[in-house]
Amino acid sequence: MEQALQAIGPGNDDPALKLRLGRDSLLLALLRHDQNHLRAEQGFLDARKTLSEVPRSQVDAAQLDEWLAILDFHEAKMFAATGRDGPALEQLMRATKTLNRLADERPDAAVLRSELAACYLSSASILEGMNQLGDAREVRALALSELRKLLAGDPSDVSLRIEIAGCLGAMAEASVLAGDTSSADSTSGEAMKLLDEVLAVQPDHAEAAARKAAQLGLRAGLLRDKGRSQEAIDDFDVALSMLERLFASNPQNSMVVYRLALLRWQKARMVGTDGAREAEITLISESIQLLQSLEIRQDPNGPAPEILQRTNAYMAGDLGHALQLVGRRDEAALAFAEAVKLWEGLSSSRPKSEEYTEALLWCRQRMQDLQ
């Protein structure tokens, strides 16, 4: 494709050909981005230059705008992956505005609503990373609205049901973080209902099973907070059993591995609260090993490196605390030292993050208590 674009070269004034060249430049940029090519970023710049030279008045302007919005969306994802959250969010908002207008003009074009929902979901992830949890919930609600419009057009679409369930699940998790347990409970229940409908038809659907396991884990946390410990443990065990089966059949699925690590960690905190400290230590240690395997793998389809590092830092701190409580001071000191190292790295990348700063201070204080 690169050779073809070079062969055609500049200088041709045919508007239709210019539009086609713009599309092909965008496709080339997306291919480079998908393959983590060294010239991925330059590819987006080249595509933007080519598309900007297309005479709007002589071509399908709506089509041109859609391609520019797609360019904005994917370039923004690349910015976010390298910590450039501000420019990423700005471009996603621009893409969202364009896609909103196009979707209103062409309500029958399902692909526009799909792209619009993807923009909202990406914006929500960035806002969460910036600790803008309230804004992230609002943006996810907008994504959910677009996904539901798509589902109304094709009620049997399994992939859309899973996307909606994923959106609802993320909203439930955000509600838990914001302390809104009532909203979390109802939203999680809605997600679970959709996933059960998918699993009733396709019981071996790995993604649906993984997302249901995540929602069971969230529900277990809500039950624990209500004092219903045994019901919470039962939900954890069902969820872990589902994820362990998925992991056994496909150990390379990074999201399954990550969800399994999270659930083991959640269960560890619960059994530790009930006094089973050795079981807590074992479960957290297993969770950390799973996360480390993901960090080594560096799967682009798995959790972002910052998310892995943040989760690992929390787990290391919890492990140190559990070890300290059973008197294993030397091991506790090592765990806290690892947590400090991870939080220092995160704080240097986001110096204004209160979460990272406070977590780092907590772990440093724990290390001093052991001296």
Write the layout of secondary structure elements.
Layout: H1 2-8, H2 15-34, H3 40-52, H4 61-81, H5 85-105, H6 110-129, H7 133-153, H8 158-177, H9 181-201, H10 206-225, H11 229-249, H12 254-273, H13 277-297, H14 305-325, H15 329-349, H16 354-370
Helix pairs in contact: 2-3, 2-4, 3-4, 4-5, 4-6, 5-6, 6-7, 7-8, 8-9, 8-10, 9-10, 10-11, 10-12, 11-12, 12-13, 12-14, 13-14, 14-15, 14-16, 15-16
Any overview of this molecule?
The model has no long low-confidence stretch (mean pLDDT 86). This protein has 16 helices and no strands. By secondary structure, it is mainly α.
Features:
371 residues, mainly alpha, 16 helices, 82% helix, 0% strand
How large a portion of the residues is in β-strands, by DSSP E? under 5%
Which percent bin holds the helix content?
A: over 70%
Structural class based on helices, strands and sheet pairing: mainly alpha
Distance, first to last CA: 62 Å
Radius of gyration: 23 Å
Instruction: Characterize the biggest β-sheet.
Output: none
Shape: globular
Low-confidence stretches: none
Summary, kept brief:
This protein is an all-alpha fold. The chain is built from 16 helices and no strands. The longest helix has 21 residues, at about 60-80.
